[in-house]
Amino acid sequence: MISNKFVYSIMAGLIALFLIVLMVLPNLGVEAKNDEFSYETKLFNEKKVTTVDIEINEEDWADILKNPNKEEYKEASVTINGERIGNVAVRTKGNSSLMSVANSDSNRYSLKIDFDHYDNTQSFYGLKKLNLNNNFSDTTQMKEYVSYEMMESMGLATPDHSYMNVTVNGEDYGLMLGVEAVDETFLAKNYGSNDGFLYKPDGTGSDLKYISSDIDDYSGLNPKTNESNLDQSNILDMIDVINNGGDIEEYIDVDNMLRYFATTTALVSMDSYQGMMKHNYYLYEEDGKFSIIPWDYNMAFGGFSMGGMGDMGDRPMPEGMENMDMSKLMEGGEMQLPEGQELPEGIKGGNMLDAMTNEEIMTDEAINFDIYNPVQSTTLEDRPLLNALLENEEYLAKYEKYLEEVSTKYFTEENVSKITREVSATILTYVKADPSKFTTTEQFLAGVSGENSLAAFAGARSESILKQLSGELVIDSKSAEEDPQVDHNTEPKESPPIQSTQDDSGQSEKSEGMKPPEGFDPENMPEGMDLPEGFDPSKMPDGMGQGQMGDSGENVDPVSSMKSLALTLGSLLILLLAIFGVKKFNRRGFR
Hints:
With about 600 residues, the chain is α+β, with helices and mostly antiparallel strands. Among the domains are: about 5-35 and about 520-590; about 40-180, no CATH class. It is built from 17 helices and 12 strands. It has helices at about 5-35, 40, 60-65, 95-100, 145-155, 185-190, 235-245, 255-265, 355, 365, 385-390, 395-410, 415-435, 440-450, 455-470, 480, 560-590; strands at about 50-55, 75-80, 85-95, 110-115, 130-135, 160-170, 170-180, 195-200, 280-285, 290-295, 330, 335. It has a 7-stranded mixed β-barrel with strand order 1-2-3-4-5-7-6. It is globular and about 85 Å long.
C-alpha cells in the first residue's frame, strides 16, 4: 500500500518545483526582453559610427529626390554593419527642415527607414523604425545628441541615438544622427507596456488649450496608438483640468513633466511646446496619467528664433501662420503663404537654408532666457500645461530644484565639453569626408571647443540659471509684460532650499507588492504539507505576465510576458493535479 507519507512527499516535491519555476520566471522574462530589444547594442553604439547602406531602385530614389515633400515610401533593402535586411521602406521626413532643403540646392534629406512597413513581423533586433536625421540648422552637428544625453541624465525616457554613416546605392549620402522612433517598441521597452495612448501633437489643439468636449475639434493631437479606442482616453479630461482647474495629479505625471520642462528650458529648445510651433513632443497616457517624451532637438541651444530662423527674435509668425503645419507651406518647391502675408525678414525668398545654418549661439537672448517665463513668441497662458505647473508653488519649487540639478550636474561646461570631445573623436573623420554636410568642418570643430562651443554655451547658460534662481539676475521679459498673470520676475526672490541629490520620483517605479497566483491559498495546504523554508507568498511577482517591473528593475516586454504566463499556467496545472491526487488518496483511505 502507498502510505500518506510517500504521497505527501511526492506532492510536496511537485509544489516545490512549481514554486521554484515561478520564482525563476522573472529572470526568464528579462532574458527575453534583452533579446527583444537588443537593437540598443546592435545598432545604437555611441562609441562608434554605424554604417547604413541603402539599396533602392534608381528610379524610385530619383522620385524621392524630385518629390521630397510627398514623403512617399519606396521599397529598398538596408545593410547595417554588414547585416542585410530586405523588403524595407524608405522615405524623406521632416517639417521645416524638409521644406527648407526641398527649396534649396541640397539633397541632404532626413530619412525614415520602416522595417515592418511591408511585413509587420519584420524588425531589426526588435526595432521597427529608424530615423536618420540630417542635423539641419546645426553647424555643430551635436545639438540633438547632447540634448538627448541631458534628457537621459534627468531620468526621462529618451529615444536611443548614435551617429550613422549612410550610403545610397554605393554612393556616400552623409553622416546622420540615427534616432529610435517613439512607437510601440519604444513604449514597451521604457514603460513595460504599450497598451496606453500615444499622441504626437502638432497643429490644432497641440497647445493643449481647451476648445470643446469633442475630440474631433483637436485635429492636431495626432494619436499614434489605440486610434480606434480614443473614447477610453483621458486626453480631454487632462486638457480640461489644466485649463479650467482641478486635480492635475489625477491626469499628469507631474514629476516627469517638471523634469522635462526644466531640461528643455535649460537647453533653450524653443522648437517645442514652449515655442510658437507648439510641437516636437509626445504625450503617453498610461493608466490614465500622461507623461511627456522628448523629441527633436537640432534647434536647441537657442537655435530656433534666437539666431536661427533668420534671427526672428521675439517676433511672432505672420498673422494667419501661427497654427499652420510648416510642411504644408511648400507646394511645387515654392513657399505658399496666406494671401497678403510675408515671411519675416531674413528668410524671405523661400530659402531658409542659409539663414538656418549661419548661427551664433552665444547670444544674450539665449543665454539669459527667462526660466520663470520659459516661452517664446507666445505666453504662458497660451501654453496651459506649463502654466498649470508653474503657477503651483509646490511644483514651481520642484521645477527650480530640477533646474538647479541640470545646471550643476549635467549641463555644465565641463560635462558638455567631455561629451562633445568624445563625439568629435568618434565622428571627425566622417565629418571631414561628408559630401553633403550643410556647413564646414571648421564650424563643427568650433562647436567642440572655444568661445562659441556648445560647452561654452552650457557654462554661460547654467551660470545664468543659477543667478536667476538666487534672485541675483532678474529678466525683464517682454512676454511677461504682455501676460499679467506672469509675475515671477517683478522683483528679486529668495529661492527655497535646493536639494543637491536626485530623488527617485522620476524613475520607473518597482512593484510595491508581490502576490501569489489567483486561487492559490497557502492556508489550505493538504495536511502534512508545508511550503519550502524561507518561502514568503507575499513576495511572489505581482501581475505576472502583465509587463510590469519586477524586483530586478527590468521591464518585461509583452512577448516574454506571454511566455511567462504559459509557463505559470502549466506549473499551476501541475499543482492542482497534485492537490487533487492527495484528496483522492485521502478519500480512498490508503495507508
